[in-house]
Every structure is written in structure tokens, then in C-alpha cells.
């Protein structure tokens, strides 16, 4: 049984070879690389081309580029951060192919910061035992990567770009092979409203799901649409419980909601330290790397200290950098703090953890293939096995690059053998998929509140039961409205709210099942790591009657 969002039947259809959903580092890299095989690519993106998380990345991109550094050392640091759940072959692919993938990104046009001899400058971030983070524009790495990739796709006439278009659901052929998708193009134009794109393969690169929580570093487009679409199409998602909360997000007050400004780990990498309201450096003695301990450790330590002191935030002190260093090394962060009335040159920055990165996602193999034939996923929406229970800082841009290239290589190879054929879309079958009742737009804020209270940095069976009950109530409400013939209108806000609801339900289901503390999944009621029972991935798939079935699988 597959499901679809309630939406009008497609009013227009177009055809391509490979349709890519999302225009961050992952999606644009797939598009550029399949073009090299002569395939036509269509990139569909929800807002403007540069509106995903990629543009916001500050710290940089990790790769063993420095003298004395090796992929093996990068692998070791990644495995430690992943807390026993990384798939080693996936990490090996990441760290060995990473340095050349960064060089290819430079060849596309991304300009990284360099010293006077032209060598790429490398900084350190939490969990890395070496300086291996390449950065651009000081702390504007993602903006530079996005700029270079957007310029490259714009100059390639073989890449069709469809902006302001929300992808709804997967289309398959009679064999269940991905054959395209449905989408809704916003605004007036030739292709207004709901339509369909037929394709030989579909690549999801829709980014993260941070908007499931009230406070997040993710932009408004990060509503987990790709995960929700994949679940409705029958694909397996995995490790959703591992949401990384960034420890140092600018605290803007108790009522702040939505995207919040990040204060990059690189600020700690350059020597800023965390202090509580009394000026005590509370990370000292908690981990050998002090403030540069892996993110989950720092986020937990901050949360614990906030609870002990009844405080709403802690402080990050970088006053000793001086104005000149703030201005050259961290211009973006300096500007964003000052815009909110805090001058880091003269006072410590108030910080608190916020949802930042989804380590789990749509389960893929080493070539980005999901469990649905012809459907691929890469970037933050995917779970390649690289991050395990916790992503190592700055490995995500790299994962987006490396696995996008791997998908393009797989598609190129299939094209060469004649296997990548045109598919006949089973329109009748697609319409037969069960329509999901839509949630009202107001549900978005309620989902975020439920998830922040129930499945945030600290979780327990009781907190998650409350979240599950609240989510079930929202679904019941949508069903009742449908039965009373007053359903929510199909439109962007209701589709996004419905996607957020499915993703939140899957996340809580996984987090409630995993009765241990590991990586960024912190259970108050199960404070220890339990390798005997839980050193395994936790997959979920949507069943008949909309239930989520858990499918544990071994670490590869
Ligand atoms: C503030 C911040 C700082 C970060 N710093 C770093 C860092 O220093 N180093 C690092 O490695 N990582 C960092 N990350 C994480 C990293 O930026 C992301 O994991 C990465 O950029 C994700 O890339 P992506 O291509 O998978 O997705 P994104 O760049 O998020 O792109 C997703 C795309 O999908 C589109 N989309 C979503 N849903 C739909 C839909 N239904 N229909 C059509 N289009 C859709 C979006 O509009 C967007 O274009 C940071 C993240 C944030 C938020």
C-alpha cells in the first residue's frame, strides 16, 4: 500500500532523464555530474535555488587535505563521533573520496580561504584531532559553495531549473520503479499548479527536518518533505532518532521560534570558551577536548548546567579574540550577533542548544539507492551510514558532495548499459494510492511545541508518550474534519504541516523504541549505552492503515 498527499490531479506533464529534488550541495552536485554523461537533469526546488541549509553553513567542509593528515585519521574521528553506529564502508568512501571531491568543487569555482602561499587554510572543530576544515569567506563557507554550484547549473543549458515548486509525491511504473513525481508550482506561469515530471530516475536531496522543532538552525524549507515522501512511497527510513542539537545557537529569548542564528563551532575551534552565569568554564574536566568535545557532549553539558542553575542559556566568551579577529575570521557571526544587540567583542554571547542536523534519513546503500528501485537520496535527507549516532562536525557538506557524485556515477553506469530506460508512469496506480488527510497550517506550531517538549535534547518514555498522544490527536482532528466534509485545503502550508506530522511521528516512534543513550539520542530513563541490544540501526516503514513498522538492521 502506498500513500499520497491529498492534491488535485496533475494538470500538466513534462519529461526529463533525471529529476533532482532540492538545490543544495547534494542536489546541484548530482545535476552537474549526470550532465557529464549526457543525461538531461531537471532540478526542482521549493523556493529560490539557494534557499536550503547549504547557504547557511559556516564552519566549513572536512577533508584530509592538510600535511600529516590522512583519510584513516578522519575515519577514526568520524567513527568515534558516530558512537558505534557508523557503517564503516560508507565512512571509508567519504574520507577517501572526500579530498578529491573538494578539489573538484574548487574546479567548479568555489574559492576557499588560503594563506599567502596559496595553501588552503584549515581550522579545527569539535571531535576532530586535526585541523582539517576548509572554509570560505571566513565563516561563509556554505554561501560560497552555493554561489559556485548555482552559477555552474545556471550556465548549463542541459539543466532545467524549476524554482518555487513543492514536490508532493513519487510516481512509479507498473513494476514499482520510480518513474517521476508530482509537484505544485507556486505562482503564475506556464506551469502553474499541480503537475507531473516523468523521469528515468528520481533523486531526493531535500535537506533536513529541523523545522520539526520550535528552535532550529535550519531554514524554513527544511520540513522533512523528502523523508515524508519516501515513507509514503514505501521506502525505509532509518536512524531518525539521532537529531543533532547544535550546542551554541544564539539565544534570542524564551519565545523565539523558527530559524535561529548559529554561532559556529569554529569559534570554539579558535579558542572561545563556554561559561555559565558565574563565569565558570564548565566544560573543563568533562572531556579531554574541553569545549571541543563532540557536539552531543557539549549540548548535553550545556543543557545539564542550564537545568542545574535554572538558566535559559549559557555564554560563549570570545572577547579575547579582539575586534580585528572577529571582523576578519567571523564576519557573518559578528554581524548577526550585533544585529541582535550583542557585541561579542565586548560581551559573552548568550547561547543554547537548538535542532541542527538529522543524522538519520532515507536509508541508502553506498550508491545512494533507496529501498525503492530508481529512487535515490543524498545529502542530509539520506542515511548513508556515515554519521551513525552523531555527525562529526563539517562532515555533512562533504557527505553531500561525495554521495551525490556516487549517485551520478551509478546513473551514468546504468545509462551506459542501457538499463536507465524511460518508464511508463502508472497514472491510474498513482491516483489509487491512498490520499492522506491534510493537517491545517496551525498544526505546524503545535507539532514543533510537542516535539521540543517531548523529543528534544533530553527524552524519556513519559515525554515521548506525551508527544505521541499530541501527534495522534492532530491526526484524529484531520480525519474528523475530512469526515465532516470540511478538510484542510490542499496548499503549501497544509502539505508542509502534513509532512512535518509524518516525520515527527516517525522520529518519536524511533526515539521511544531506542531504550538507551547513544550519540545525540539522550534518554533520561535509559542513561547508558546498551551495545548488546541496541548496536543496530532502527529502520521504519509505513504499513497498511498508516502504521509505522520498525525494522532493526545490523551495523555494516
Ligand atoms: C546554520 C547551519 C550551519 C551549518 N554549518 C555546517 C558546516 O559548517 N559544515 C557542514 O558540513 N555542514 C554544516 N551544516 C549542515 C549542512 O549545511 C547541511 O547538512 C547541508 O548543506 C545539506 O545539504 P543538502 O543539499 O542535503 O540540503 P539543503 O542545502 O538543505 O537543500 C535542500 C533543498 O531541498 C529543497 N526542498 C526541500 N523540500 C522540497 C520539496 N518538497 N520540493 C522541492 N524542493 C524541496 C529546498 O528548498 C533546498 O533547495 C550547517 C547547517 C546549518 C543550518
Automatic annotation (TrEMBL):
Domain FAD-dependent oxidoreductase 2 FAD-binding: 17-397
Gene3D superfamilies according to UniProt: FAD/NAD(P)-binding domain, Fumarate reductase/succinate dehydrogenase flavoprotein-like, C-terminal domain, Succinate dehydrogenase/fumarate reductase flavoprotein, catalytic domain
Location in or out of the cell: Cytoplasm
Fumarate reductase/succinate dehydrogenase flavoprotein-like C-terminal domain sequence ranges: 444-543
InterPro entries hit by this protein: FAD-dep_OxRdtase_2_FAD-bd, FAD/NAD-bd_sf, Fum_R/Succ_DH_flav-like_C_sf, Fum_Rdtase/Succ_DH_flav-like_C, NadB, Succ_DH/fumarate_Rdtase_cat_sf
Pathway: Cofactor biosynthesis; NAD(+) biosynthesis; iminoaspartate from L-aspartate (oxidase route): step 1/1
Superkingdom assignment: Bacteria
Cofactor(s) listed in the protein's UniProt record: FAD
Pfam families: FAD_binding_2, Succ_DH_flav_C
Key words of the record: FAD, Flavoprotein, Oxidoreductase, Pyridine nucleotide biosynthesis
Main location group: cytoplasm
Enzyme class: oxidoreductase
Catalytic function, reaction form: L-aspartate + O2 = iminosuccinate + H2O2
Family, similarity comment: Belongs to the FAD-dependent oxidoreductase 2 family. NadB subfamily.
Name by which UniProt lists this protein: L-aspartate oxidase
Natural source organism: Kitasatospora cinereorecta
